Write the structure tokens for this entry.
Amino acid sequence: MASVYFDGATRRHKGNARPSVDSVTLDIEDGEFLVLVGPSGCGKSTTLRMLAGLEPVDDGTIYIDGHDQRGVRPRDRDVAMVFQSYALYPNMSAEENMAFALRNAGMGKAEAHQRVLEAAKILELEPLLGRKPGQLSGGQRQRVAMGRAIVRQPKVFCMDEPLSNLDAKLRVSTRAQIAALQRRLGVTTVYVTHDQVEAMTMGHRVAVLNAGVLQQVDTPEALYDRPVNTFVAGFIGSPAINLVEAPVRDGQADLLGAPVPLQQRADAERVILGVRPESWTVGAQGVPVRVELVESLGAEAFVYGRPEGDPDGPRLTVRLEKKLRPEVGDVLTIAPVPAEVHVFDAESGQRLA
Amino acid sequence: MTESAITGVDPDESSGRAHQAEAASFGGVLMKVAGYAAMVAVLLLVAAPLFWIVITSIKERPDIYTQPAQWWPSPPTADGYKAATTDIEFWSYFKNSLIITTILSIAKIVLGVLSAYALSLLRFPGRTIIFVIVIAALMVPNQITVISNYALVSQLGWRNTYQGIIIPLAGVAFGTFLMRNQFLSVPGEIIEAARLDGAGPMKLLWRVVLPMSWPTLIAFSIITVVNEWNEYLWPFLMSDDARTGTLPVGLTQLQNNDGITNWGPVMAATVLAMLPVLIVFLALQRHMIKGLTAGAVKG
Ligand SMILES: Nc1ncnc2c1ncn2[C@@H]1O[C@H](COP(=O)(O)OP(=O)(O)OP(=O)(O)O)[C@@H](O)[C@H]1O
Ligand SMILES: [Mg+2]
């Protein structure tokens, strides 16, 4: 168990103009479950692999438990990794897969067997220990891969989209299992995913990465309630937040005709307003919206539409309670809840208030 | 040897079925007939000479030359075999072949695997250049280096010695090339997992990379054993007699023994010379089984 500290860690891949990971500074507490999210190609895997020592750190450095990891070999870092592909050794049984690291570290056969049994018990793998990976289902392989990481009792777990090869249902149950397991073992964990739900439900904190640059590190709630910029606002939350550029007049932003009072920077010419789908009220006053699509999920419904009389206007998403069910083509008048509107700078996209 | 054995990718049952389905959809019967015709043609091409060798080896001497050709020996005789094993020092040649093939094959396989491993999975400066040199070596035909090798080896006084035959033949460009490509096809994440699991270079090779490469390694081994067993030119140049001569060299002696070639014993000796490699092949090809990488990544 250990803390992890990324100190301006940068990774430049040969031939790429921009760094794949651009001076990431990130403090991960001992025992914390940190989720790393971001769109495809943003450098999540690279960040994780730098921590594991599989990828060099070109600038800056990474500390594990306060120790600079520069020049420390992967095997000496005491980091266990769960790969997206699981990367099990096909020629070894589940038990041998799990015991491999222990035996390499010089542990005796009996002791290693004991450790494997303990892990197998937690992961309900006991009846499968003698099987080779080829004889296991996807979910079972995933658990063996987890087992291989936990038997080592490492300082840090690195997990790179470990659930992405499972079907939706199994993913939900495994998600909960991994989170519970991490709490039980208390091992510092960095978990990479591009799945919203995993990011919001599993970790203590979530780090959002975009184009190699760390955008925000916060608890899931804070990330949702106070995104630091338009990227985070747009990335977290499903369906996505409505981001609308609005001109400012007399200290008020004009959201397609609906006034939104500004606390800060009322002098700016334009701002970007972020309104979550649930932050609208349907009433007599506000923006008339022609409904283009209704997604009914039972308890709630999401309505997509454009401002009436403005077919090129922004597409808006509105969450509706059960009682209201408009048809496609209806006109709905909506107004944002002022307290829940996020205001961003029009140029930089940074949060204003 | 099947192609799949060489590439290490085995067509498994399902793809076999897919092929069948494809064949059926192509106008079923016609494709099937064409397939069998091709198979028969290949069989005739390969098996006819073999059959001829075998029956000639058990024919009586006058029968060998009769016109029209006799398709079945009457009566069969073991004279050819007796002559083959007594006219020349057959067992001495046989022993030489065995020793030289064993040592050479082991040397080639070990060197091939180790060099391929270094060139594919270990990082060191100049790796690419070394690989290019190895490939260049592969391009040079053996016959070209024979003269300089001969000069060198005879200068060392190594004619009629095992090392004189073995050492110049122990270069392994082909094995390096084949095994390197095989090793490169092992999923990188498995190798990284092994590194994280604390496996050193030898353990990585022995416990992780090689077990995933058996089909290719076995194909390479079979090719090597067969090649070395049948190697003719160099052992012939290096040996004057049965002290170090290999079986192919012995066969020549048998041919020229009394001016005109007595084909019965020659064919008998050929059959005897074929048997060991046939056994090796049958023993090893069983292991070129499918699915060695199944379940390693995804699935
Ligand atoms: N070996 C490499 N050589 C060159 N560029 C690379 C290499 N590995 C990764 N990159 C680049 O680095 C960037 C980050 O890659 P990375 O694999 O970390 O993305 P990711 O966030 O894990 O994406 P995904 O969600 O698709 O897995 C990408 O733009 C990629 O093209
Ligand atoms: Mg990735």
